[in-house]
């Protein structure tokens, strides 16, 4: 009798690779569609009244539809995180601690970004005190700054696994490690815009990984390409 187990395994890994790629691309598209279509946030030096005006505007990330779309985007990114680290864990082999740390870090990033109170501030903006509006903004930015450290941990661990296993091209692993270091160290100056470069590069990395996984054959399982 023909053994169909290897074929079934290959189909499962192929399906997971495609889910990973589609989730990564969908997350990037959703996140940037939401961000591009929203009004610019005030700077940290803005007055309390400017923050209140911001939350009363209908086209911010905290508004009803955009906050919903952004939440869907982040949950989709969590799909990408879990799926990718499952592939990396298989490639890493025994004691896949780097892949496990990457998964926890990616999920923590999503949790921290969603933990801010800006949506609640926008909901109650008509009755909100200007100083509370300023506090809600600062709290949201601090949560995002902490989230970037978790995202840096995710990128760094993924890169480490990629470099050591060659599951994907090694240059992609080294790039991920560099992005991770940039995201983590940007926390030192969290009120500046220094984080933008590694953050944007991270999403370029996600797109590249997603495309490679969509094009890849998993006939040999989730091993080195």
Q: Which band does the percent of strand residues land in?
A: under 5%
**Main sheet attributes: strand count, strand direction, barrel closure:** none
Gyration radius from CA atoms, angstroms = 20 Å
Can you give the helix content as a percent range? over 70%
Q: Looking at the structure, what is the overall shape?
A: elongated
The parts where pLDDT drops under 50 for at least 5 residues are none
End-to-end gap: 30 Å
Specify the number of helices.
Answer: 8
Total beta strand runs: 0
Order of helices and strands: HHHHHHHH
Overall pLDDT score: 90
Structural class: mainly alpha
Notes on the structure:
By secondary structure, the protein is mostly helical. It has one domain. It is built from eight helices and no strands. Helix 1 (5-36) runs antiparallel to helix 8, helix 3 runs antiparallel to helix 4 and helix 3 (64-92) packs parallel to helix 6 (130-165). The longest helix is centred in the middle third of the chain and has 36 residues, at 130-165. It starts with a helix and ends in a 10-residue tail after the last helix.
List the helices and strands and how they pair.
Elements: H1 5-36, H2 48-56, H3 64-92, H4 97-113, H5 118-123, H6 130-165, H7 170-185, H8 196-215
Helix pairs in contact: 1-3, 1-8, 2-6, 3-4, 3-6, 4-6, 6-7, 7-8
């Amino acid at each position: 009798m023909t053994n169909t187990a290897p074929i079934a395994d290959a189909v499962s890994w192929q399906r997971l690779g495609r889910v990973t790629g589609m989730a990564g691309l969908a997350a990037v598209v959703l996140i940037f569609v939401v961000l591009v279509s929203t009004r610019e946030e005030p700077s940290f030096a803005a007055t309390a009244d400017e923050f209140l005006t911001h939350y009363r505007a209908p086209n911010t990330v905290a508004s009803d539809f955009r906050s919903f779309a952004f939440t869907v985007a982040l949950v989709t990114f969590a799909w990408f995180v879990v799926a990718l680290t499952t592939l990396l864990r298989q490639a890493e082999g025994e004691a896949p601690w780097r892949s496990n740390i990457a998964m926890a870090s990616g999920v923590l990033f999503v949790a921290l970004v969603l933990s801010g109170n800006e949506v609640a501030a926008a909901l109650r903006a008509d009755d909100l005190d200007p100083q509370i509006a300023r506090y809600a903004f600062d709290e949201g930015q601090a949560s995002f700054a902490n989230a970037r450290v978790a995202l840096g941990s995710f990128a760094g661990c993924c890169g480490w696994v990629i470099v050591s296993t060659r599951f994907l091209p090694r240059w992609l692993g080294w790039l991920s490690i560099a992005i991770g270091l940039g995201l983590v160290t940007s926390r030192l100056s969290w009120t500046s815009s220094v984080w933008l470069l590694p953050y944007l590069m991270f999403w370029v990395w996600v797109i590249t990984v997603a495309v490679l996984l969509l094009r890849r054959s998993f006939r040999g399982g989730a091993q080195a390409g």
